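User: structure tokens for this one?
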Amino acid sequence: MSVLALQLAGPLQSWGAAARFARRTTENTPTKSGVIGLLAAAQGLERDADLSALAALRFGVRVDQPGTRIRDFQTAHHADTNAAMPVSDRYYLSDAVFVAALQGGDDLITELAQALRAPRYLPYLGRRSCPPSRPLDLGVHTKAELEGVLANEPWRASEWYQKHRWRETTVVLPVLMDARGDTTGGALGDTMRDHPLSFDPRHRRYALRAVHHTTVTVTNPHARRLPGNRGVPAHDPTSLLDGA
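Assistant:
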């Protein structure tokens, strides 16, 4: 088995799991359907293609920089009648950074890594208006497990964000991944309807996915020691006072 690691960073990201009518929300982390869609686009698959091989990959995501949720709205007019369409609310994650990983057979993982380096269709972070700002491919790890890759990948948060947390030599990061039978070391938190069955626009279909929550600890490369001795002061003025 091999693991493909991805860096998902950009000015805006939007990972919808339950979009309804004129309200388009985003989850706090990349969805499995969104990342599988990104890989399918890189491969050049059509929307009605069989997704069973990609959907069978074990998926996990680490929150390196949570970002900020923002709301936008869009207006539009009908192309034929010029009538005003309903205002659409759109939600995004601004300045977020994630590390995603997918575990599967060696041949398929290698094929996906090659597709990312020369994508047939432009990858985007949940919506077409959200292009990545960094290279997506963080490499292929052979004979590896999903948990190990997400734990050992260096902290990918922006430099300004790492410097903002300069007091912390290590940082605890949330991780969400496809649940297995045992949940040792974490909690089986909830389910998400983001397991892709079909991207066919005539009948998009998604199944429920059990999500396992845990954390990992990474090193902060921009941590600094506090200046001076934080213990007993070098000069103690009270030592001159009379005990009486």
